[in-house]
Amino acid sequence: MADLLVKICGMTRAEDVVGCAEAGADLLGFIFAAKSPRRLTVAQAAALPRTGARRVGVFVEQTLDEVLAAMDAAELDFAQLHGGQTPDFCRAVGRERVIRAFWPQKHADTAALAAEVERFAGAIRYALLDAGSSGGGHGVSLPFASLAAFSPSMPWLLAGGLGPHNVAEAVAQARPHGLDLNSGVESSPGLKELAKVRRSLWAVKG
């Protein structure tokens, strides 16, 4: 599991950016969604320190021009798209720069989910499976074992209610290529608890 990608989302403080990167996070997420309690402005994200971890902007309602401008201004490596954006939108951002969210609970079964995800083959770098039916940050976990047969043509990340208590189980049962952690490693929204971050990373990376 050493090459498993781990993203810590909802960065709001410089000390959390540095601490999560030092703990071994591969990706750090900055949320630009208007309704999120962890929302940052582009200027606030741009002011947070650069580390060895790659930087991900999380977008819901923004236009293509707004996404591209934010990626440039905040020096983002990836755009994580949670607003139902089309394959053409993703290609315009750049296929190697897009993490596109999907919601398994919107589909009758894994086959229907896979069919939707495959519409984005060649348009995105990573798929991300999240709980709920839209948006993100619900703090609820998907049933891990139900995803064991999910094997799309692109690597995928698992999100939703993940933390030190369940990350090893999530990896063993769902077999994703990466994990996206947020509320499960916080003391309150936007404030990371670095002991939980380190325990989570240790559980899946060793």
Structure described in brief:
The protein is α/β, with parallel strands linked by helices and 206 residues long. It contains 7 helices and 10 strands.
List the helices and strands and how they pair.
Elements: E1 5-8, H1 14-23, E2 27-31, H2 42-47, E3 54-59, H3 64-73, E4 78-81, H4 87-93, E5 98-102, H5 110-118, E6 126-129, E7 156-159, H6 167-174, E8 178-181, E9 186-188, E10 191-192, H7 194-205
Parallel strand pairs: 1-2, 1-8, 2-3, 3-4, 4-5, 5-6, 6-7, 7-8
Antiparallel strand pairs: 9-10
What does this structure look like?
The strands form two sheets. The protein has an eight-stranded parallel beta barrel, surrounded by five helices. A hairpin with a 2-residue loop joins strand 9 (186-188) and strand 10 (191-192). The protein is built from seven helices and ten strands. It is an alpha/beta fold and 206 residues long.
Considering the chains and any ligands shown, give keywords for the structure.
206 residues; alpha/beta; TIM Barrel; eight-stranded parallel beta barrel; two-stranded antiparallel ribbon; 10 strands; 20% strand
Task: Write down the secondary-structure element order.
Answer: EHEHEHEHEHEEHEEEH
Beta-sheet strand percentage? 15-25%
Number of strands: 10
Q: Could you report the average pLDDT, rounded to the nearest whole number?
A: 94
Sheet of most strands: 8 strands, parallel, barrel
**End-to-end CA span:** 8 Å
If strands are numbered along the chain, what order do they take across the biggest sheet? 1-2-3-4-5-6-7-8
The CATH superfamily is identified as Aldolase class I
Q: What's the CATH first level?
A: Alpha Beta
Shape: globular
Percent of residues in helices comes to 25-40%
